[in-house]
Amino acid sequence: MLLTLDQVLVELGGPEGPLPRSTWQDWQRKGTGPKVIKLPNGQIRVARDDLNAWLDGLTRDPSR
Questions:
Q1: Which of 2, 10, 20, 34 has the highest local Cβ count within 10 Å?
Q2: How confident is the model at residue 63 (pLDDT cuts 50, 70, 90)?
Q3: How many Cα atoms sit within 13 Å of 59 on the Cβ side?
Q4: Looking at residue 62, what is its pLDDT?
Q5: DSSP 8-state secondary structure symbol assigned to residue 61
Q6: What is this structure's pTM?
Q7: Which residues contact residue 28 at a Cβ distance below 8 angstroms, ignoring those fewer than 6 apart?
Q8: What is the distance between the alpha carbons of residues 21 and 55, in angstroms, rounded to a whole number?
Q9: Where do the domains of the chain lie?
Q10: Across-strand partners of 14?
Q11: Can you tell me the distance from the alpha carbon of 34 to that of 52, in angstroms, rounded to the nearest whole number?
């Protein structure tokens, strides 16, 4: 399943609202965000599996 950028920003945000687009752009510039698919019309999509894998990679065991 492909997610729109807006869907991803909402999912990554918190109670205060979606993740700021500027934060997303910073992550992409630094190469620290999830993989993206850029469509010919310039829109961004993120595969659900890629987003989940990226989030799994951020998971840390609090006891370590």
A1: 34
A2: confident
A3: 7
A4: 77
A5: -
A6: 0.87
A7: 36
A8: 18
A9: 2-58
A10: 17
A11: 9
Per-residue DSSP letter, 34: -
Contacts of 30 (CB under 8 A, 6+ apart): none
Q: Give the contacts of 55 (CB within 8 A, at least 6 positions apart).
A: 34
- For residue range 13-31, list pLDDT tens digits in order: 999 999 999 999 999 999 9
Task: Give me the residue label for tokens 């850029």.
Answer: 38
Rounded to whole angstroms, how far apart are CA atoms 55 and 49? 10
Hey, what's the torsion of the CAs at 31, 25, 50, 55, to 10 degrees?
Answer: 90
Q: Residue type for 61, please?
A: D
- Give the closest residue to 53 by CA, choosing from 31, 39, 37, 33: 33
